[in-house]
Amino acid sequence: MDIDFSHWGTGFDAFMGAFSSRFPRIEPRRRAASYVRGLLSELERKNGWTIAEGAGDKTPDGMQRLLNASQWDQDGARDDLRTVIVDAIGDKENAILVVDETGFLKKGNKSAGVARMYTGTAGKTENCQIGVFLAYTSPAGHALIDRELYLPAAWTNDPDRCAAAGIPEHTKFSTKYQLAQRMIERARAADTPFSWVTADEVYGQAEPLRAYLEHERISYVMAVRRTEKVTMHTGPSTAEVVIAGPETQWQRMSAGEGTKGPRVADWSSTQLTDDSHTEGHRYILARRSIDDTTDLAYYFCCSNKPINLEELVHVAASRWTVEECFQTAKNEAGLDHYQVRDYTAWYKHMTLSMIALAFLTIIKTAEEKRGSSIRTTASSPSRATKSDDYSIESSGP
Fold first, then answer.
1. Is the pTM above the cut of 0.70?
2. Among residues of the chain, what percentage have pLDDT more than 70?
3. In this structure, are residues 98 and 321 in contact, taking their beta carbons and an 8 Å threshold?
4. Which residue in 8, 13, 77, 231 has its CB near the most CB atoms, within 10 A?
5. Cβ pair 76, 21 in contact under 8 A
6. Residue range(s) defining the domain that contains residue 302
7. How many domains is the chain partitioned into structurally?
């Protein structure tokens, strides 16, 4: 679904009001609202210059100042965003936290954290920044709720370079999985309702992250390498060897709708030997392509209660929601359109872009509840109605 931007009206103003306390002065508060409007506009490129033009400003100074110099609480706004999303789509029994990263291609070497790194955005090693994100997904929708900028050791070991990019003094190197754990801890501290955590192999292969989740009794499904070590009643083994065993039974299942229809694959799960050092029920989950039986993916799973194959598959498959968040945020909310080098400015832009994405999520969720349609163009007039305090376009006559 798409949105008819002509009918934001008082709904958008009410939405932005949820973040007003994070702006001590009215000028940056108004700038932030204009910035988010610009991110949601049909501008081809959504940077300080184009957003300023769209807002009727003669220069980009105000928008650039919002990111680089204005004093406002971007972390507090992030916390408000999480609250807004939970209020809209929260579901304690069925919600899942999804960890993933995305790359932002950059030129030069002055942007905070920029380095030559592999990024799935380009499918190869490129000069880029890497952002680690936390998504919240439930049956009602999904959105990004937290963000961290990955700083390679080459940065944190160079105080002068960090100072020039606005990185706080004494910032220490953190791995990507440590950034992920930091965001999960923030979500838990805020009593965010969720039942599972899932992530791809970059995070699943991090034993300390899995150990943290098990210690905190947080159920998870994490992708791992085929060579990941496991302990069976017969002794040490690997994920690949366990799944290749003669007792493995495969079940063909759909993991939900994809861009080309149902995402059907063969799935299997094997319960692991109880670990006396941890509580919970532990499994290896495997996915096998129906077109190529040598194409397999493996997952470590831990649940606070016995769990069936269907539930494990559902959690594993929910990872696609963060990819959709990235795609929508980049295409519709300017996530990757920024032109800032400063560390804090990066966080401010990401927060505002995530706020824009949240507005899209809330409008879409409200409209789906009504069974109405949403459009992106404002070329023809239509009747606007109210739903959940936001102005929504009705599909009725």
1. yes
2. 88
3. yes
4. 77
5. yes
6. 211-318
7. 1
